[in-house]
Design brief:
Keywords: FAD, Flavoprotein. By secondary structure, this protein is an alpha/beta fold. The chain contains 20 helices and 25 strands. A hairpin with a 2-residue loop joins strand 8 and strand 9.
Length: 692
């Protein structure tokens, strides 16, 4: 047995080396044959630090799924200056090929966060810590994700509104989904739920494994229709729609930043890590940020607003580093409290999922397809022909994401039957189980221990299979983000508290039973679908596939679907745990908004990228409305003032606070009179005015 284990391990290790060579070869071939992917003319060209200004009208922190949208929309006003600060660099060429999605995790485009060790979940992961990938790159996590375009359920947004967030009901947010969208799925043309002509192209994946048809038919066997999950009805099965253009990944950087990066009033600074938002201790007004670029630190000032779009992990971290958050926690780590907001970093939600639901199949042999491509087996596709198909014919398996070729939104017996079309489980239906890629997704992406993977999959390595990954759509458990210390360089403490509410675990148990029922449908039995018979060693005390076994499996093979939300909760001032109001303004702080997934009061019933883009579209409109009478600050008057490069943080913050307060007051007077008074403009826009 030891010899067999050694052989299996050697096979997997050899494949991992081949994967690296395959990716390098793919990159080389893209450079040679796919100028549309290289796209040198349109990629963002960040200005050197010497070209950055000392003051902008708006400073946006984070160039991800939300920040890219905000920078685009605000810079549509040519009188305003915008600085977008992104800690990472531009996305790689290889990331645009959908199949490469798992290889992007733990790359230099990933912050590589991990949850704190737990005895309740992630038990099969290295050090009992789940990997939490987050994008450190222009486009943020839209560069790392599986490209799925899912909006959530109508009730999600109606419930947000019922919590006191006026203007966030479904009818109010639908126009913002449609504003971004350029739907290219033919059968959805003319739908009142979809948009045309927006920056964000939505397509079906160009390549599809034949087994995907079986998934949808199996759903029909169980009474579930094939539906547009972003339309009138969410419950049902579907081919996965994606944020794709011509079959390639469409990140928000590609969709929103490249088209506007040449605007004179927009500076996009990459490799710029924000360490603090500058907030006046007395005025409680945000007036700029401190950031590090290269070996130097800089301060940059905002005439109007600072917008935090760093995501559900780093936005609360940044607020706390800046003195906004739970007072007791800030004092404990040595940070002076500017605004006591207990909800910062709390209310962390994620769609917890269960891995390991794997089924072997016998691929059919008939004229419609070759048996070797019926499901996804990685070694069979790592060939010269696969690369040539991609770079020359723009076809082939590099255009698919096997982990989620189809999706389903279904109901378990635990769901409230009175809530029509409000499913409690989402299934990702994969044309490959974990055995099919030698651990690329499970070991590399999720962080599974080698021994755990080997026990489940080594003796069925690279056999035809499929998998289903169920996730809890409306988890009851809540986690938190806290600072490790006062140093911005240290990653925060991430505690998701999966299964803290036992109902979440029971939903996964019922979801596993549903997946088993799916395997027993006539459609799946026609390809001899059968469960992987290998038992999880740590769960062997329980009857195989019993409720207790499923509970044990969920605690061991715990998965994130990369949907952290809720850590800067939106809510009225009467909600003690709310961080921002319905205009996304931070409670108690002037000139500071949070616009990203962290503002969700409750996580949406589906993937979070499309809702985050919607939030950014709506947030940008709120800013435009708030500053509709603002004609632009002095930097738009051909000022030559450039960003200084101090070696420390010493700045005249009192003077900056006075300037910021004065300009804010003048803006309010201008809005009151609903006109631009010449004398006010002269004072407001005169950079040399004696404020002292």
């Amino acid at each position: 047995m030891a010899l067999e284990e050694l052989t299996y391990g050697a096979t997997r290790n050899a494949l991992q080396g081949a994967e690296l060579l395959f990716i390098l070869f793919l990159r080389f071939m893209i450079i040679l044959f796919r100028p549309d992917i290289v796209d040198r003319e349109n990629r963002v060209q960040p200005p050197p630090t010497s070209e950055l200004l000392a003051r902008y009208d708006f400073v946006v922190i984070g160039g991800g799924s939300a920040g890219a949208v905000i920078a685009n929309r605000l810079s549509e006003n040519s009188n305003w200056t915008i600085l977008l600060l992104e800690a990472g660099d531009d996305e790689s060429f290889v990331s645009e090929a959908p199949l490469t999605f798992p290889t992007l995790q733990l790359s230099n485009m990933d912050w590589q966060f991990k949850t704190e060790p737990s005895l309740n979940y992630c038990l099969a992961m290295k050090d009992k810590r789940c990997n939490w990938p987050r994008g450190k790159v222009l486009g943020g996590s839209s560069v790392l994700n599986a490209m799925l375009y899912v909006r959530g359920n109508k009730r999600d947004y109606d419930q947000w509104s019922e919590l006191g967030n006026e203007g966030w009901d479904y009818e109010s947010v639908l126009p913002y989904f449609k504003k971004s969208e350029d739907n290219r799925i033919a059968e959805l043309d003319g739908s009142p739920y979809h948009g045309k002509g927006g920056p964000l192209t939505v397509e079906n994946f160009r390549h599809r494994s034949p087994i995907t048809e079986y998934f949808l038919q199996a759903g029909r066997d169980l009474g579930y229709e094939t539906v547009d999950i972003n339309g009138a009805q969410q419950t049902g099965f579907t081919y996965s729609p994606g944020t794709l253009r011509d079959g390639l990944r469409l990140s928000t950087a590609k969709a929103f930043l490249r088209p506007c990066s040449s605007r004179k009033n927009l500076h996009i600074a990459t490799n710029s890590f924000v360490e603090e938002i500058m907030i006046g201790e007395t005025s409680k007004t945000a007036y700029g940020v401190k950031f590090r670029r290269g070996l130097r630190r800089y301060s940059v000032y905002a005439n109007c607003e600072v917008i935090a779009s760093a995501g559900a992990i780093q936005t609360p971290q940044l607020l706390m580093l800046s003195g906004v958050g739970p007072a007791d926690h800030l004092l404990k780590v040595g940070i002076p409290v500017i605004q006591d907001l207990p909800g910062v970093g709390q209310n962390l939600q994620d769609h917890v999922a269960m891995g390991g639901l794997s089924y072997l199949i016998d691929a059919p042999k008939h004229e419609a397809h070759e048996s070797h491509d019926f499901s996804f087996v990685l070694p069979k596709l790592m060939t010269l022909n696969t690369v040539l198909q991609f770079v020359r014919n723009e076809t082939g398996p590099l255009y698919l994401v096997p982990e989620c070729e189809a999706m389903a939104f279904v109901n378990t017996k635990l769901n409230d039957e009175s809530m029509h079309d409000f499913p409690d489980v989402q299934l990702f239906l994969s044309s490959a189980a974990d055995n099919a890629d030698g651990g690329l997704f499970g070991i590399h992406g999720c962080g599974l221990c080698e021994e755990f993977y080997a026990g489940l999959y080594d003796d069925i390595l690279y056999q035809d299979s499929y998998a289903a990954v169920p996730l809890v759509l409306r988890p009851k458990s809540r986690g938190y983000i806290k600072l490790r210390n006062s140093d911005p360089k240290y990653q925060p403490i991430i505690v998701p508290n999966y299964f803290d509410d036992p109902r979440d675990l029971e939903v996964l148990v019922e979801a596993a039973k549903f997946v088993d029922r799916l395997s027993l449908t006539p459609t799946m039995r026609s390809i001899n679908a059968r469960p992987n018979g290998n038992v999880i060693r740590e769960c062997a005390a329980h009857e195989f596939r019993s409720d207790d076994y499923w509970r044990c499996q969920a605690r061991h093979y715990t998965m994130t679907i990369y949907h952290p939300t809720g850590t800067c909760k939106m809510g009225p001032v009467t909600d003690s745990m709310a961080v921002v109001d319905a205009k996304l303004q931070v409670h108690g702080i002037t000139g500071l908004r949070v616009i990203d997934a962290s503002i969700m009061p409750n996580i949406v019933t589906g993937n979070t990228n499309a809702p985050t883009i919607m939030i950014a579209e709506k947030g940008a409109d709120m800013i435009k409305e708030a500053w509709r009478h603002y004609a632009g600050g002095p930097m738009n008057r051909r000022s030559t003032s450039k960003l200084q490069s101090p070696l420390d943080w010493h700045v005249n913050e009192q003077r900056e606070e006075i300037i910021r307060q004065t300009r804010s007051s003048l803006q309010k007077i201008t809005e009151l009179f609903e006109t631009d008074l010449p004398v006010l403009n002269e004072i407001r826009d005169n950079e040399d005015y004696d404020y002292d």
